[in-house]
Amino acid sequence: MNTIASHLALATIQAGRHLVYARPLAAAEVTDASAAAARMTLAVVILTIVILAALKSAIGTLAHLMAELLRAMAELLRAVVAIGFLILILVTATGVILVLLANH
Q: 40 near 19, Cβ under 8 Å?
């Protein structure tokens, strides 16, 4: 969000300021109220584009973080399963040893 979104926001503000000085090339003069409405509409459209660009970046970052979280959880699950198998082997070996000692 610090890369392009801030530049787009600044460009939006500057474009709004420059629109005040712009005059239509058409023969008919646009009234001040409709020019203000046009400037506001353009500012809203540009602001929407800036917000969508920032959201796209945030969603990409969130997807990357989710992928890393899932990878870490898979590693953790693998470690838990390995510990479970070690415990199972130890319990089985202990049981075998106890059975052998009980028979002597």
A: no
